[in-house]
Amino acid sequence: MMKRVxxxxxxTMFIFSTVACSSGSKMQNTTAVSAISSGEEMGTGSAQGQDxxxxxxxxxxxxxxxxxxxxxxxxxxKMADYMAEELAARSNGAFEVTVASGGQLGNDETTIDxxxxxxxxxxxxxxxxxxxxxxxxxxxxMPYLFDSRTEFESVLMQNGxxxxxxxxxxxxxxxxxxLLGLSNGGQRDLHTGIEIKTVNDIKNLKMRVTSSxxxxxxxxxxxxxxxxxxxxxxxxxIQTNTVNAFECTLAAYNSNALYEVAPYHVKTAHQFTPSHxxxxxxxxxxxxxxLQELLFAVxxxxxxxGSRLANEADDTLLDMLIKDKGVKVCEPNREEFKEKVExxxxxxxxxxxxxxLLTMIQDITK
Length: 366
Fold this sequence. Notes:
Number of strands: 9
Shape: globular
Distance between the termini: 37 Å
Radius of gyration: 20 Å
Order of helices and strands: HHEHEHEHHHEEHEHEHEHHEHHH
């Protein structure tokens, strides 16, 4: 009992310190990650195996590379760091994990292709950029579909129907991918270089979107001119006027210093960010059953950690950005945006063959 209390307190202190501060040593962050609370407290059901160390394999036998396009203090990086530390510790070094952050190995679509080929092991990223491989992912990104982050996170459980549905689509499409986790990457808002008071103020803005057809449809309906662009190109894209606006979480906005080129934070609160942890099936199939089980459990823990970090960032970062970075906040009527996109639901679902997933989610959340 005392151990469980200690771990819970340590986890809480870690989350507060990493989100409230914009800097900190790598050593502090990595050490704190190891203090994450037990699987039982995280809702994973994997508490029983947290204290068990697998000792049957030579050190470094299974070399794993995890890629993410984010950098710095972003939750996806911390999820990857957590997985690296826990997999190494709980396999007695059999897992040797390298984290490639900041898009070192390419954008999301490139890295997913690399997983299919077996040249990359794991990707942590946004489901929007995975939509070309599983079109139904677009349902999770539908704006204003979820009333709260609690409701959103309720459909992401590793043992839930939505999780199983996505894995079925991975299998049906023959992509050679294994879903390990789904996570809330945080609330998404609009960012630009001009003040936005109403939905009409974004008309004809060149809006950066991912390659997701849903995003293009939605932002077209809102009056913008959608422009597909890698997330890592947004900063230069704003500088060169290739795009005028973009949407992302506060954590991504902060960690990539995007406030320098787009100082207006527009509270559209149009969606939560569905994030995925996906593994190459070639990598997965090389692992013995006990290491597969360990990887699956640690990924679940990392997904829950990601949701917690994203929520803390949403709750604390804006005040810091206003005070320290000069960010200006716009609060247009959210209902104006919602009214324009809700009629698109059936069209979006049909276009991505996700009518059954939309119905499933609406049944879960009603």
